[in-house]
Specification:
Elements: H1 14-20, H2 25-38, H3 46-55, H4 57-60, H5 64-88, H6 103-116, H7 120-123, H8 130-140, H9 145-171, H10 174-177, H11 180-224
Helix pairs in contact: 1-3, 2-5, 3-5, 3-9, 3-11, 5-8, 5-9, 6-8
């Protein structure tokens, strides 16, 4: 059985989460990355989880290569789910006032996809939140599946191997290897930066729309009177 994860352990404490999976750590890594990529729950520590797993792989009883392979497969599988949800269901799952499946986030992903095309599946894979929504955007745009699969493979493999390599390199630096908690804080801060920027942008756009619509509404009211 999986080791029981204490309630006090945060999902963002990657080292604790990895150790909590015990001998099933590879399955745990695959599960979390798959959920982040394909089950439309983007608020999981994919980047920090992967880097941490590579740094402490020897204490987990796995090799960096195993971590990279499992992460790549899970990311590819998750993106497939996102693509087919977008292709079959489209925008019907998204709501303006939704907590996770918001039309604003999908709009941003679609704009990113429109700008970069297939490359968005490679570039977006390295950006939290974006990597969850870009496959959906590709599906809603009816991107040809073979083309999607090609870019999906390149993006997922590059991401998994790249972050695992970063973890291996950082793990070879004693100062970092003995201060993993501080490193994870830095990684998480960089990971949530796009979320914070996106929230400020959405708030700015909403405020600007209110400011522009208020005079127009007042003018219509005056004409009606």
């Amino acid at each position: 059985m999986l080791h029981t994860v204490p309630l006090a352990v945060s999902l963002f404490d990657a080292a604790s989460v990895l150790h909590a999976f015990g001998p099933y750590v590879l399955a745990g890594i695959a599960l979390l990355i798959f959920i982040e990529s394909g089950v439309l729950f983007p608020f999981l520590p994919g980047d920090s989880l992967l880097v941490t797993a590579a740094i402490i792989s020897s204490t987990l009883g796995v090799t960096p290569w195993q971590v990279a392979i499992v992460a790549a497969i899970a990311a590819i599988a998750g993106d497939q789910v996102g693509y087919w949800i977008g292709k079959r269901v489209g925008r019907r799952l998204f709501k303006d006032d939704g907590r996770i499946l918001t039309t604003a986030r999908l709009d941003e992903a679609e704009a990113f996809f429109t700008k970069w095309g297939g490359l968005s599946l490679i570039l977006g894979r390295f950006v939290p939140i974006v990597r969850t929504y870009v496959p959906l955007a590709a599906g809603t745009a009816q991107m040809h599946y073979r083309r999607f699969l090609l870019f999906n493979l390149i993006g997922a493999i590059s991401w998994a191997c790249g972050l695992t390599a970063v973890g291996v390199l950082l793990g070879g630096i004693p100062l970092i290897a003995h201060n993993i908690d501080a490193l994870m804080i830095v990684i998480i801060l960089f990971s949530i930066l796009p979320i914070v920027i996106g929230a400020f942008r959405r708030r700015h756009v909403a405020r600007r729309n209110r400011d522009t619509s208020a005079p127009a509404s007042a003018e219509r009211t005056a004409r009606e009177q």
